[in-house]
Structure to design on (642 residues):
């Protein structure tokens, strides 16, 4: 067995110089040794691959037309063998992606890994963040039930309020005066073609930049300690990554079983007694918009566009504003406080949005 | 010289061990929970919960033992001979069970009291300044969730303090200072965690994964257990009808006899027709 494996290895090695490749991929030194904190990026890659696999399986049956989207999704849920599970996995996988993107961002923020010379990794990361959110927004429409249709209608209306580009953006996405076939086609193409392509390209760039700069490593520890623990990517970090991926995979499967996807009524031009609501990871923003100061045309623009855009710009500028080389989060009080406030803010607003449901009926 | 265990705070020590042990055991527990779920058993109630708890205890003992041993060696330079997990686990579990009861009562009461107070306060304030619904929800939430969270954190800290105190006693009683240098210690604790033969480990990991996948697939329902009201399950009666061989045979015989009779009469008719027809055209 081993002799045979060796022969296969030698055969490939002669042709593509496997040894160098292996040395480059697996023997990457990790300063300070492997850590659980570094698993989030690899976990994101894993979730994305699984979303692609389940997404392709769903596309075998899904029909992106206003007449058939709903029926074909119901067919996947009720008729196709294990279709309900694949769809529910894909649904919960999207939530896991958002949670993990927040975890990864938090890790690199708290570890000060965005600082010189890793500014470009951080910037490409922000673009990846936008792509992950866009995946959620476009995917939400595809089942074409009341929830899908009205969340998108509200979302596009909010976008419409943006000065200068808003009108164009809304018309570009809708493809007509009201959401219909054109909207579905566009969202579908963006969801299954544009975003996956963009994500793959940018993730490749992200990794290339990461490998060029090298991992940032721990934010404290004496040089002696760091040197004692420095280690290759294989096997310890690979092992940690695999365990983390398995844990995430198992959790997504469990959620798919506990709360499988159940559609509402088919989309119709009247919301009836359904109160439009976006996916949970947009709820905090949605709840913020219910505040009085964000009422009215200008308020909506302020809450839905100006503040989020300003926040993203601030994040993009962060490595250039925060030039201090100090990476230890316990010596960066402003950074720690800001992160805590943002996280608690998102949590409180999300819970508020859930409590708010009771007041709507 | 003071004992190395006294250099670290009890809370930090207990937190480091229990946090790491929690995540070490987590993947194994999820596997059990997932198999239960696939078999349509809820792991949060009844038999499912009992099964999960029964499986969790040994997993936790093992995980706590592993993380504690490595932590003692790496951070304190202390080696413990003999089992570590079981001795620490039962103390943490007893303290945890007690604290869980206290926390349940304390957090519940705080939340209930603060909710009432928040409602009353907002009622008065609203008479002076109107507060819109969305703002009111968040203010009210903060008014009871912040105190309740503080009480919860206090309970957690008390548990950590007590557990940390027990861990220190354990280390002082059964640990011995290791003579090895830092580099050597790192290598040693690493050897406990990383198998010498990584390839063998990966192969066995894959084999277990394949086995579990098959078990999962066998248990997993083929069609959704949560049907939409407009999409009722396919009528099961048609398939379920009981087969009674004798009746079936009789019925078939009857059908055959009828068919024979029809054939016979058809043949007779044909023969008559032939006779009736003039020969040649
Ligand atoms: C789909 C989304 C993403 C994928 C697949 C991804 C993937 C990865 C991977 C595999 C690494 C290698 C090491 C590690 O995991 O820590 C990494 C590092 C990094 N990522 Fe991402 N990432 C994504 C999104 C983001 C976002 C949203 C940000 C921040 C805005 C970000 C910023 C960084 C930084 C600064 C590093 C370097 C960390 C270090 O040197 O320790 N990434 N990413």
């Amino acid at each position: 067995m081993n002799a045979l494996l060796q022969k296969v290895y030698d055969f490939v090695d002669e042709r593509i110089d496997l040894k160098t490749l292996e040395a480059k991929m697996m023997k990457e030194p990790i300063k300070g040794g492997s850590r659980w904190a570094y698993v989030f990026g690899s976990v994101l890659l894993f979730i994305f691959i699984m979303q692609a696999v389940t997404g392709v399986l769903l596309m075998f049956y899904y029909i992106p037309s206003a007449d058939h989207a709903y029926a074909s999704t119901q067919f996947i849920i009720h008729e196709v063998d294990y279709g309900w599970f694949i769809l529910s996995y894909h649904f919960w996988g999207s939530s896991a992606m958002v949670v993990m993107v927040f975890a990864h961002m938090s890790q690199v923020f708290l570890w000060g890994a965005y600082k010189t010379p890793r500014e470009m990794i951080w910037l490409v990361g922000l673009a990846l963040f936008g792509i992950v959110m866009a995946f959620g927004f476009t995917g939400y429409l595809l089942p074409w039930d009341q929830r899908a249709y009205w969340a998108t209608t509200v979302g596009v209306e909010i976008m419409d309020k943006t000065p200068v580009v808003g009108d164009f953006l809304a018309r570009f996405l809708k493809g007509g005066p009201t959401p219909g076939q054109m909207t579905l086609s566009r969202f579908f193409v963006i969801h299954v073609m544009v975003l996956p392509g963009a994500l793959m390209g940018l993730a490749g760039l992200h990794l290339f930049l990461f490998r060029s700069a090298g991992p940032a490593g721990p934010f404290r520890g004496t040089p002696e300690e760091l040197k004692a623990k420095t280690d290759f990517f294989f096997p310890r970090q690979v092992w940690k990554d695999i365990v983390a991926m398995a844990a995430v995979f198992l959790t997504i499967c469990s959620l798919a079983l506990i709360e499988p996807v159940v559609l509402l009524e088919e989309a119709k031009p009247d919301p009836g007694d359904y109160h439009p609501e976006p996916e949970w990871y947009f709820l905090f923003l949605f709840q913020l918009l219910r505040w009085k100061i964000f009422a009215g045309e200008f308020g909506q623009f302020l809450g839905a566009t100006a503040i989020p855009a300003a926040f993203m710009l601030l994040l993009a500028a962060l490595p250039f504003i925060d030039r201090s080389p100090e990476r230890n989060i316990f010596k960066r009080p402003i950074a720690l406080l800001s992160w805590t406030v943002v996280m608690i803010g998102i949590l409180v607003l999300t819970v508020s949005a859930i409590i708010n449901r009771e007041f709507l009926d | 010289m003071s004992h190395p265990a006294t250099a670290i705070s009890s809370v930090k020590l207990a937190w480091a061990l229990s946090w790491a042990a929690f995540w070490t055991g987590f993947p194994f527990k999820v596997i059990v929970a997932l198999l239960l779920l696939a078999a349509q058993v809820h792991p949060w109630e009844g038999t499912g919960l009992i099964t999960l708890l029964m499986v969790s205890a040994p997993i936790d003992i093992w995980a706590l033992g592993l993380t504690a041993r490595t932590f003692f060696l790496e951070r304190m330079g202390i080696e413990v001979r003999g089992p570590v997990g079981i001795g620490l686990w039962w103390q943490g579990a007893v303290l945890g069970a007690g604290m869980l009861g206290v926390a349940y009562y304390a957090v519940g009461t705080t939340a209930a009291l603060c909710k009432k107070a928040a409602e009353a306060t907002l009622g008065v304030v609203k008479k002076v300044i109107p507060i819109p619904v969305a703002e009111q929800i968040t203010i009210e939430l903060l008014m009871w969730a912040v105190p309740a969270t503080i009480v919860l954190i206090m309970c957690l800290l008390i548990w950590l303090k007590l557990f940390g105190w027990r861990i220190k006693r354990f280390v002082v009683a059964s640990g011995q200072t290791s003579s090895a240098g830092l580099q050597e210690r790192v290598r040693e604790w690493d050897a406990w965690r990383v198998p010498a033969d990584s390839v063998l480990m990966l192969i066995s990991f894959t084999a277990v994964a394949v086995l579990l996948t098959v078990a999962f697939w066998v248990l997993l329902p083929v069609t959704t257990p949560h049907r939409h009201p407009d999409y009722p399950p396919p009528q099961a009666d048609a398939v379920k009808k009981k087969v009674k061989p004798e009746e079936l045979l009789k019925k078939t015989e009857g059908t055959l006899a009828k068919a024979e009779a029809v054939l016979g009469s058809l043949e007779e008719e044909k023969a008559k027709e032939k006779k009736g027809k003039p020969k040649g055209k």
About this structure: Chain B touches chain A at residues 23, 26-27, 30-31, 33-34, 37-38, 132-135, 137-138, 141-142, 145, 182-183, 186, 190, 193-194, 198, 201, 205, 209, 216, 220, 222-228, 230-231 (CB under 8 Å). Chain B has two domains: 4-219, 236-276. The pocket of protoporphyrin IX containing FE is lined by residues A 38, 40-42, 44-45, 101, 104-105, 108, 113-114, 118, 121-122, 125-126, 128-129, 132, 203, 206-207, 210, 215-216 (CB under 6 Å). Chain B has a mean pLDDT of 87.
